[in-house]
Design goal:
Blueprint (H helix, E strand, L loop, with lengths): L1 H19 L5 H8 L5 H6 L5 H6 L7 H17 L2 H8 L4 H9 L18 H12 L3 H11 L3 H8 L2 H12 L5 E4 L15 E9 L2 E16 L6 E9 L10 E10 L5 E3 L12 E12 L13 H12 L3 H23 L1 E2 L2 E2 L4 H29 L5 H26 L1 H4 L8 H12 L4 H17 L3 H8 L4 H32 L11 H25 L7 H26 L7 H24 L4 H11 L11 H12 L3 H6 L13 H14 L1 H9 L5 H6 L5 H18 L25 H8 L1 H7 L1
Parallel strand pairs: 1-4, 2-4
Antiparallel strand pairs: 2-3, 3-7, 4-5, 6-7, 8-9
Helix pairs in contact: 1-20, 2-12, 5-8, 8-9, 8-13, 10-12, 12-15, 13-14, 13-15, 13-25, 13-27, 14-15, 14-22, 14-23, 14-25, 15-17, 15-18, 18-22, 19-20, 20-21, 21-22, 21-23, 21-24, 22-23, 23-24, 23-25, 27-30, 31-32
Bound molecules: flavin-adenine dinucleotide.
Amino acid sequence: MGKLRQKTITKPIFKWAQKAMPSLSETERDALNAGDTWWDAEIFTGNPDWSKLQATPKPKLTEEEQAFIDGPVNELCGLIDDWKIVWETGDMEQKVWDFLRENRLFGMIIPKQYGGLEFSAFAHSEIVKKITTRSTVAAVTTMVPNSLGPGELLMQFGTEKQKDYWLPRLADGREIPCFGLTSEEAGSDAGAMVDKGVICEGEYNGEKVLGIRLNWHKRYITLGPVATVLGLAFKCYDPDKLIGDEEDLGISVALVPTDLPGIDIGRRHLPAFQMFQNGPNWGTDVFIPFENILGGKEQLGKGWAMLMSALAAGRGISLPALSAAGTTLTARTSGAYARIRQQFGVPISKFEGIQDPLAALAARAYKLDGARHLTCSALDQGHKPSVISAIMKYHMTTAMRDSVTDAMDIHGGKAVIDGPLNYLGNLYRAVPVAITVEGANIMTRSLMIFGQGAIRCHPYLLNEILALEHEDKDKALADFDKYFWKHVAHSTKTVFRSIGRSWFGTGTSPDEPELKKYYKAMSRYSAALAIASDLSLLILGGKLKFKEMLSARLGDVLSELYMLSAVLKRWEDEGRQTEDLPLVKYNMQTGFVKIETALDEVYQNFPNKLVSGFLRAITLPFGKSQTAPSDELKRTCADLITAKTATRDRLSQGMYLCEHHTSEGIHRLEIAFDLTIEAASAEEKLRDADISDPEKGLKASVITKQECDLIQRERHATEKVIEVDDFEPGDFVRYGCPSEDGEPEESVRDYLRRTSPDLASAAE
Ligand SMILES: Cc1cc2nc3c(=O)[nH]c(=O)nc-3n(C[C@H](O)[C@H](O)[C@H](O)COP(=O)(O)OP(=O)(O)OC[C@H]3O[C@@H](n4cnc5c(N)ncnc54)[C@H](O)[C@@H]3O)c2cc1C
């Protein structure tokens, strides 16, 4: 029966599929082999098993990790002067570099046996998050050696000898690493690099050895200008066939000490005024022995697979932590500022126009930190979920951009005017950097999330594609037959599931009274995604990857389902905090609107109207049914961050609140906010009596002496928050720039110390 089916039915389908299905290029194959899948694959089944999500452990810090954050990380934050880095010195002070080295912050992921801290992904993420809330420059400087650079690559692919030599040196900061992939020709299409290595004989340490002569020009390389070792990606050639029969070996990775002859490194770019070290570098006929090839000579040509593997994990940690920090900081500060700042005689937090973005800020902060926790949990269980890390990279950085923009709008001129008192300006400038690096966002959304997600997460598709490409024809047909019919059965079930859930509201949900309907809706959209993906692949096959707008929208559905899963998980993990329920609802409602809009637009633009009509009938039979959060829900969400609530504290978890620093912008804001809340009832008494001066209120016995003092302190603190910096026209001279007579000009800081000691102390 099986053989008959193979011959009569499967074989013609097999032949058709060979033409229609996407074939895999070598780089795509490497990307697909890198990392693994996790909850993303569960979403793709069309029938997620919620008990698996609930059983995922909540990420926890060890005592040692917690002590490190409470100790050295806080101390580090206290040492950093962001204003000075950006506007005066153009670099972190030497004491900060030394502190990072001495405390092994460059070796967070390196095992203890090599002298590193061997922290979990969650601890790593918490540390990057906290440092970001103090300075994006310090955060980027800390995260790069722990992220996609030589450290991670060495641990995954280095020889024992390479690990023994390099890891201890990276852990204690004797070596500063950078990773050089990008060049002029090769940006998003990193495989298009023309940087070249040719196998030849050369001289190294006075000896003649076989090795590689390198020529390259890289740009945008973070930490490049100060790096002592460059993880270099290049294309390797063996024209004289010195090590085998192949001439074109492919992309390879080498560890190149930056003091070798022929290397030009040290110039800096100025990336959106983010003063982390970043710059171009060049190599001209630089010779390295094979022992500098990552993983040894045998690994020549396997560089792309290595990079994809490092990216699968690293991309899920650093930028998501930075983005979560951005949303945490903007939610906390905007809530406080809106409460303090008055216009038209009332706090601006009372205006609905302000409540709208405040609600979005609070909800995003909840969602992003939930996603960060969930992803760290997967990473700490040993997963390297490459599709999830792409989702995290894109959606976290995009959400941070939205939050920073909302926060800037809420603060008005206060956030626009730069100076030591501005706590948002530098974060605002950092956003495009986060959007661009580690896979530029448009490409990540349009090409990668669904492009890889559909193949990797689908229960059968990858096996079908691999079967189609199998060299043994009989085995190919047998394998294809096996997976194809499983696929058909799965799709049929999904069609019925989708009908049941869309038409009759059936669907799985854990025993969770408050959120049952959300779980059921998630199950419904998961089935919709599964069947819409199947039919898109069936109709478009390999052409789907060129239909980026369709691919992006299907990817949005997958991403939204992942991010919303994280919201549901956070609610569980934090013990179902009733006060936070509005934020859960806001996120679910907003997310569902996005999902339905994405599906609707897929169907509108689908090339086959019959199929799109069928998809619409089984997934969106009554059109778009979800509605955005109501005004009342928005008001409630906004109130959660404009008052001293437990929710506000939960949302601010992991933020540096200037414990070691006095008088800077956020610190002033915190003091004024506390006093504003404390003085609210006394202020109300004055308002009711139509008196504005507290002294007069005291004389009229409207308020007590204690209340009068409190109001005075509150008003003084508020004035301090509302203050912005101003400078003399001649002050905008960078430290160390020579004046006409060749002497260094006075720095902005020194000028402030001389002319306005109060303001200078604010920055110190
Ligand atoms: C501050 C900074 C730090 C960096 N640090 C490093 C580093 O340490 N090491 C390193 O090797 N590199 C680094 N990079 C490089 C970074 O990874 C690249 O900038 C990034 O890969 C994008 O390349 P590109 O800037 O040339 O943009 P391009 O590739 O020219 O892209 C331009 C636009 O086209 C879009 N696009 C491209 N292809 C597609 C597609 N197929 N579909 C849809 N849209 C597409 C992109 O999303 C982007 O919006 C850094 C860059 C910056 C700016």
